[in-house]
Design a protein that fits this description.
The chain crosses the membrane at residues 45-64, 85-108. Keywords: Membrane, Transmembrane, Transmembrane helix. It comes from Chitiniphilus shinanonensis. This is Membrane protein. By secondary structure, the protein is mainly alpha-helical. The chain has one domain (7-136). The chain is built from 6 helices and no strands. The chain has helices at 7-19, 27-37, 43-65, 77-82, 95-105, 110-136.
Length: 137
């Protein structure tokens, strides 16, 4: 459990969390730095980045539920048409924040929101970690 106190662990998780909220953050750079500093690590930083970023996305969805419900504006029709699957794009900078906020505003059920949100964030970090790992091999 000593790894929980490691500043790298806290920094990676915090950066990933902030990157998924409306606050600025750079989780990709933090993940790459962690992987270079700990070349033997792979799954731990991947799990930390995914968990932090997913939790930040969940907070943004929750914030969307606090917005007053209303009719779906023209710009949100695409999102309403594609449903929760669109949250697989929740990792995209700026767009992902808007998707998460809209999911909450549209009052989509959590059981359908969470899998796509988490999957999108995991796949992005997995691709990044695999590509960074390829630089050493």
């Amino acid at each position: 459990m000593a790894w929980l106190l490691d500043a790298w662990v806290v920094g990676l998780f915090a950066s990933a969390f902030l990157s998924a909220t409306l606050l600025p953050g750079n989780s990709e750079a933090a993940l790459v730095a962690y992987l270079f500093a700990h070349p033997q690590a792979f799954w731990l930083p991947l799990a930390l980045a995914t968990a932090g970023n997913s939790l930040g996305g969940i907070v943004t969805v929750w914030l969307g539920t606090r917005l007053p419900a209303g009719s779906v504006p023209r710009r949100a029709e695409w999102l309403a048409r594609h449903g929760e699957l669109a949250l697989a794009l929740s990792w995209v900078p700026l767009l992902g924040d808007a998707l998460c906020l809209a999911a909450g505003w549209l009052r989509w059920p959590w059981r359908r929101v969470l899998p796509w949100l988490i999957l999108g964030k995991f796949v992005r970090y997995l691709a990044l970690a695999v590509s960074v790992r390829g630089l050493w091999d």
